[in-house]
Amino acid sequence: RAKELGGRRVEVFAAQMHADVVRRLELAADLQRALIDQQFAIEYQPVVDLATSRVTAVEALVRWWRGSVFVPPEQFLGPAEDTGLIVPLGEWILREACREVAAWRAESWDIGLSLNLSARQITAPRFVETVEEALAESGLPASALTLEVIEEMLVEDAEETIKRLSELRALGVRLAIDDFGTGYASLAFLRQLPVDMIKIDPSFVSGLGKDDTLTLLTRTIVRLGHDLGLIVVAEGIERPEQLELLKQMGCTRGQGFLVARPMAARGVDSLMRTSLTV
Ligand code: C2E
Ligand code: MG
Ligand code: MG
Ligand code: MG
Known about the structure:
This is Sensor domain-containing phosphodiesterase. Helix content is 53%, strand content 19%. By secondary structure, it is α/β, with parallel strands linked by helices. It has an 8-stranded mixed barrel with strand order 1-2-4-5-6-7-8-9, surrounded by 5 helices. The longest helix is centred in the N-terminal third of the chain and has 35 residues, at 2-36. The model has no long low-confidence stretch (mean pLDDT 92).
């Protein structure tokens, strides 16, 4: 009897596993098709100077509508990385975003572009050349491009990753550490890479004014960043109180729903028009 029950449990488990595998294969196949059918889009979230509200840059964020269902990047980036699809997808985002930001700059709007990278993209053959091509093609100056990486990327293939990022840095491209403060490698990271910017993770910003430890940690990161001569960006600003505290701490740049949500290129167009006339 017990054996029978156990057997049934194994069967249920196997069915569950089978369903997971099927779902993952379907997702991988759909991702492949989505790239061919041009189902991906880019939204841009403004990064602003906290004192003046001037837009200093936009961060490109990939969007996927799988039919009529929106799939958040966190759900498809892993599978895209596993299947290698992140390489052509990332290249498309790179070229498209460089082109769009170069066009805004051509309207004499002095903004930069921040781009998220995944590990597999950086170590793919010809990554550095691809970035150089995207810059040359679009006319975007290297100094206007910031590449965002997270700490985990230096754990695997660390040597190759650092080498390539350093090559890009030598071209004049800026480097940022995204989600700063969440990985234990934070400080070691700063020593290994010629970094220009850190982006404080929203998990710190969310506790501002509510949690003493998180408030203290945020203050410490802002000070550390500035002492090291880095640009410090606070991410995930949602409440006015957070914005006030960040300004008091001397944090100069920020990003978050309170400041501006990610928006399609058309939204950035109108933002540009209002920015340029004030
Ligand atoms: P990230 O680079 O840290 O991007 C910030 C994320 O926080 C974005 O989510 C943005 O929409 C969201 N966000 C911005 N302000 C607020 C706020 O005030 N409150 C809250 N709750 N969220 C806010 P999104 O677009 O879902 O992207 C998630 C992550 O996926 C990104 O985190 C990044 O790691 C990755 N990602 C997005 N686009 C790309 C891409 O083109 N390539 C690669 N490799 N990764 C990407
Ligand atoms: Mg980012
Ligand atoms: Mg982040
Ligand atoms: Mg993130």
